């Protein structure tokens, strides 16, 4: 099982959700870099991906290091960084990741990450 790419059933669920939900989606990325130059490789991906995110009308809301756990049973070293990225819709996200230049940049993501968790979120109803 891949720790960097979605499983087929996860991708199918996202595609189905994209058909019925055109609202903005915020993606929470938990990132664990490979030892050595994993962070550097991911940085190459991040620079290319940020431009593509912005071209979709999205934006990087936050990027930061994970350095302390306040609540929970998670080891502080489980994750190196998080990224929070907003897209206009799930369909916009899917269109972006289908681009050939994204696939090329994705090679650096795979080279840089040991594992990741990507969670799609929608705003809570107020």
What structural category characterises the helix and strand content?
alpha+beta
Uncertain regions spanning at least 5 consecutive residues: none
Major β-sheet annotation: 4 strands, antiparallel
**Count of domain modules:** 1
User: How much helical structure, as a percent, in the residues?
Assistant: 40-55%
Widest β-sheet, arrangement of strands:
2-3-1-4
Q: What is the CATH C level class, in words?
A: Alpha Beta
Shape: globular
* Count of strand segments: 4
Distance between the termini: 38 Å
Strand percentage: 25-35%
The second-level CATH architecture is: 2-Layer Sandwich
Describe the structure.
41% of the residues lie in helices and 25% in strands. By secondary structure, the protein is α+β, with helices and mostly antiparallel strands. It has a single domain (8-121), classed as Alpha-Beta Plaits (2-Layer Sandwich), CATH 3.30.70.100. Helix 2 packs antiparallel against helix 4 (100-112).
Write the layout of secondary structure elements.
Blueprint: H1 8-20, E1 25-33, H2 38-55, E2 59-65, E3 81-87, H3 90-97, H4 100-112, E4 113-121
Antiparallel strand pairs: 1-3, 1-4, 2-3
Helix pairs in contact: 2-4
In short:
This protein is an alpha+beta fold. Helix content is about 40%, strand content about 25%.
Task: List its salient traits.
126 residues; alpha+beta; Alpha-Beta Plaits; 4 helices; 41% helix
